[in-house]
Design brief:
The complex is a heterodimer.
Chain A lengths: L4 H21 L3 H26 L3 H31 L13
Chain B lengths: L1 H20 L8 H25 L5 E11 L2 E9 L1 H24 L6 H20 L3 H19 L6 H32 L4 H7 L5 H18 L7 H5 L5 H10 L4 H8 L1 H6 L1 H24 L3 H21 L3 H28 L17 H15 L5 H15 L3 H26 L17 H16 L4 H8 L13 H26 L17 H7 L4 H47 L7 H27 L1 H10 L3
Antiparallel strand pairs in B: 1-2
The chains are: A mainly alpha, B mainly alpha.
Amino acid sequence: MEIGLNHYLVLSTLLFAIGLIGVMRRKNLLLLFFATEILLNSVNIAFAAISHYYGDLTGQLFVFFVIAIAASEVAVGLGLLIVWHKRHGNIDLDHMSTMKG
Amino acid sequence: MELYLYLALFSPLVGSLFAGLFGASPRTKIAGVVPSLLLLLSFVSSTVLLIYILSGGEKVHVEMMTWMATGDLYIPFGFVVDQVSVTMMMVVTLVSTVVHFYSIGYMDHDKGFNRFFSYLSAFVFSMMILIMSDNFAGLFIGWEGVGLCSWLLIGFWYHKESATWAANEAFIMNRIADLGMLIGIFLVYWNTGSLQYDHVFATVGALDKEVLTWMGIFLFIGAMGKSAQFPLHTWLADAMEGPTPVSALIHAATMVTAGVYLVVRANPLYDLIPNVGLFIASLGAFVALFAASMALVNRDMKRIIAYSTLSQLGYMFVAAGLGAYWVALFHLMAHAFFKALLFLGAGNVMHAMHNELDPFKMGGLRKVMKGTFIMMTLASVALAGIYPFAGFFSKDLILEVGFVEHHYIIYTVLLFTAGLTAFYSFRLVALIFHGEERYKLFGIHPHEAYKFMLVAMSPLLLLAIIAGSFKMTYFEMVTAVLPATEYHVHSTIAYWIMTIGTQLFVILAIAFAYKKYANNKVKVPDGTSKMENRLCYKILSNQYYIPYIYEEYLVKPYRELSTVFWKQVDMKVVDATVDGIAGIIYAGGEKTRVMQSGNLSTMLKWMVAGTIGLLSFAVVFGLAVRYSGEIKTILSGLGV
């Protein structure tokens, strides 16, 4: 069986679902970052596959952008995470409720 | 002449506003004197207009400004002074000038002195609009204006429960009648396309008889309310809660005669529908007798005079209903003079007796109140219709009208009522001024009113005596606009028999009243005497139980119905709906604010849920748009 576009898209969807559930369920901030990375990369897979399918490089270019921006986001996010951990001694989401109305 | 018209019309308004400026400040003489002088000005202007009209001048017709002009509807603020309205203007301005000057003395010690004059002048202004307007809409404004001022003045002593009750009763009864009046005015506009008297009465002849009948009936319902005809009469007697000058001006001389004025003014209409006219006359005769019978036994001085007013209004309606419009207007004029005089005299007595109203507790007052005694006696003589006083000319004329028009039942009723009138008038005079000084038992020290109050009353006294001699001048004047039918009994012998017979009958009634009530044996009734326990006495003194019936069978069921509607419909449906909407929104907010827990994880969950919701929305709509054709065929297959 040849591996076609659909297989990639199914993989992408599965990864997206995993990432989404992770975003919703995780209480650890670090693991939340992991989950967002999975989300972004599932989209990247879809982009690359479709780009290849149409023979259009635009999608793959977009993937580079996403990777770059995701990297910088993680850099900033991890920095904040370390500061938070230094201050409060935990990175539990349930404790981050200073904006509670 | 326009200047005089405007002066006559607007000086009461200026007076009212002037007194109103002092409404909240303590009693100042100036707030009473200035409106009175302005009314004198109004009276002088009216006199100038009267002389102008009498000397053969054209009627004065001005259009001050446009009030409403939309499409075919055109209603101006127009005023007309013709022979009819100038008569009314004279009556209104003269009586109100007298009453104003009198009130300066009468209301001397009242805290609401300034307020009183503001209301009283406002009333005169409304009344002037009512009689001077050249169209039905202006008449209606005046009509409502006098109603409002009447409400304000009946309830003038608003801290008294009974006064506010009477004021509301008068207002509500008049509102009921005004609905009829409004329907009448709508009918007039609908069928003639205008509200101007000139136009309406010029075109009214071409209309269908049935339409005219309805018009006449509905306009008369309005007149019935204002003139307190049966069954809307109960408010007039209760209106005596107001200060006595108010009773003299509003509830005897002017406002209550507005109904008669309306019928006189609409004479071209009522001429075409003699059936309605006959009904008006019959009702008038009935009210004349009905009211006079209630006055026979009443023990409240002012109420007796009020019933007498009601009875005399009945006379006027008999004349108007039988087509003798000028006679009705003449009696209106004469009646205004002697009835206002009678009321003002009663006011003096009330002052002297410290607001005691029961004539049985007075007696012998002629020694201390000579001036008032003479005035009230002469006014009663005029009311009874003794030659040569005003009442003789106007009231006997109405009897003659009934006789000449061959309505013998009406004639008999009116003749009998004339006897009753004489009896109750002199019963009152005898009880107040003659006999033993019963007031001593109650420790009252009566005193005569201020001199200037008696002087202020004297023009009315003069007119009550001599008004009859103006009959021919008046006849020549008003018949320029009113049908000029002379009412003469054809045979001279019959005429003399009738006149002398009536006079004798009236004099006998007076003599009987004096014999019964002017002696020293009159006691203050305590409910034990034989007469008081008779059935007919009880019926009469309870006013035929009509107020009781109204209370029991109209007011109470209405109140219960209102309670049901309030509790069942208003509270359970209307309020519940509004409260329900608010409750849903409030509860929704209460429930959904939990979403804002500040927890990042929860917020993310909601975000995902929202995204999924919006996405599924987009998908459903996208599909619906793509397959709209198919959906339509499926739906039409289902028969939708």
